[in-house]
Amino acid sequence: MKEETNMSLVPAKFRFTTKEKTVMIVIMVLMMIGIVITWVNYIQNAKVRAQYELAQKQLQEAIIKEQEEAERKRKEKLPNLTEVGIENMKHIYSADTKRAFLTFDDGPSSNTNQILDILKEKGIKATFFVLGSNVEKKPEIVKRMYDEGHFIANHGYSHVYGNIYQSPEAVLNEYNQCNQAVRDAIGEQEYNSHLFRFPGGLVGGKYADIKNQANTLLLQNNIVHVDWNALNGDSETTNPTIEYEMQKITETTANKQSVVILMHDAEAKKVTVEALPGIIDYLAGQGYEFKNFYEIIK
Predict the structure, then answer these.
(1) What global pTM score does this model have?
(2) Which residues, 6 or more positions from 13, have their beta carbon under 8 angstroms from its beta carbon?
(3) Contact predicate 165/211, CB 8 Å
(4) How far apart are CA 164 and CA 42, in angstroms?
(5) pLDDT tens-digit profile of 193-249?
(6) DSSP letter at 256?
(7) Are 185 and 227 in contact (CB under 8 A)?
(8) CATH architecture of the domain covering 83-295
(9) Domain boundaries, the chain
(10) Cα separations (Å) of 295 from 52, 127, 149, 159?
């Protein structure tokens, strides 16, 4: 009777049947489940977002690291003439251990690719004193030299003595012309070898006075020069043989610790290509370690 009395006190509109109560409970349970699912999804999505953001951060860091490494390698291939490098050049023909600098003048030409093949097979880095006029004709070969770690030095633009030795300023101008041709060929506008070889050599000859003045002007522009103290003789006779070049190498390197060897990779120097493997083997057999000017100008 008491329960019925209490129920009678509840307005009719607030009275629920058992079925309605069940429905309401089910709805509330479903709402709770929905809330739990939403919360779980939120947590999972937050974790996914965090993982995504972490992955993006790691990717960005990897890209930056890769870019920094590429920039480091790029700068390593840009010669930088310091006081140490200038001092090294003063003593290029002396060393405590035996070392050999293989240098090639007047290229590039069709022979240069074969020389590069030989050097690659032997694991040797050389130095190429290129002519700007030839660089413009065969830029892809110069790019290969650069990509394979050889030192690209400067031999002027024309190799025409009447042009290059008009004045000290003409020598510097030829250097700059050749340097720009190299920059364009390798796609690196900051490149400057800082290293020049006078056509015909620095010492003596008809243009000795101009050369000496030019050498001073070059040094004022942070450019050093180098000649040679050994050679294969490929420019001393019209038709050298392999035997002749080997003999000249033997004679001119005798009793020397540090040798800068003059050779040529011009179009007419086919025999130099043929003699090169034997020259390398001979020098290695004599205990020479092969160097290029990246190790001097730094």
Answers:
(1) 0.82
(2) none
(3) yes
(4) 77
(5) 999 999 999 998 999 999 999 999 999 999 999 999 999 999 999 899 999 999 999
(6) -
(7) no
(8) Alpha-Beta Barrel (3.20)
(9) 1-76, 83-295
(10) 46, 11, 12, 27
